[in-house]
Amino acid sequence: MTLPPTPASPDDLLRITVADWQAVLAAEPAAAAAWVEAAAQWGHADAQAVMGQWRLDGHGVERDPQQALHWFLRAAQRGDAMAANMAGRCHEQGWGTAVDAEKAAHWYRQALRLAALPQAQYNLANLMAAGQGTARDPSEAFALYRQAADQGYAKAYAKLGRFHEDGEVVPRDAARAFDCYRRGAEGGDFRGQFSYAGMLAARGRTDEAIGWLEKVLLSATPRYLRQAGALLLQAPDARVRAIGERMLARAA
Q1: What is the pLDDT of residues 164-203, one digit of tens each?
Q2: Any idea what the Cα angle at residue 59 is, between residues 55 and 61, rounded to 5°?
Q3: CATH class of domain segment(s) 154-252
Q4: In whole angstroms, what is the distance from residue 164 CA to residue 162 CA?
Q5: Domain residue spans in the chain?
Q6: Exposed/middle/buried for 30, CB within 10 Å: 0-12, 13-18, 19+?
Q7: What is this structure's pTM?
Q8: In 80-173, which ranges are continuous DSSP H helix?
């Protein structure tokens, strides 16, 4: 697909169309990155946000977390909610900067001032639930998870399930926990898949549980695989223990 002319002035930014963006995103990565960076340099907020993500991922350009954060901050200052959320992620995870939970919380709140972004709701809720970078506030964390889940954000369902299972903030309710874990699992969240599998196994539905544990192997982080694998090694079913061993091997 042919790229549109590379922006060469602020006036050129006003002429960028949806079709132009589709052409850029479908183009060869290096050429697309050069076009996006030019638009970003001229102050196009969407291009700045995209450039931040591509610098973080190494898409069409050398991976550079510091430059990623630079572009996320520039886009956030122009009112891009997703860029503000990603600036928070950079500070929370230490991508291109020192780990700083307070700054992460600041940028998640900034994202939420700009838009009801489920990713930012979820990320800020995580900090509030743990008391990192902000006062611990399980009730507010629950409310934020609920808001994100109401927008279909699968990861939030898994967290809500934990509140219902443990009886924190809300009464203990195994049926609600089961439903939340199911929604998270079906939405592709590996935490939801693992928790849903656990509740299925507790109900004697081990074959179904094993199917969901296999899915956890496909997307969980190494850290989560280590934790989950160690737990599965204690399971009475040899098939489940074998999945635990595979989790630990994959995380090594």
Answers
A1: 999 999 999 999 999 999 999 999 999 999 999 999 999 9
A2: 65
A3: mainly alpha
A4: 5
A5: 154-252
A6: exposed
A7: 0.92
A8: 81-93, 101-114, 118-130, 138-150, 154-166
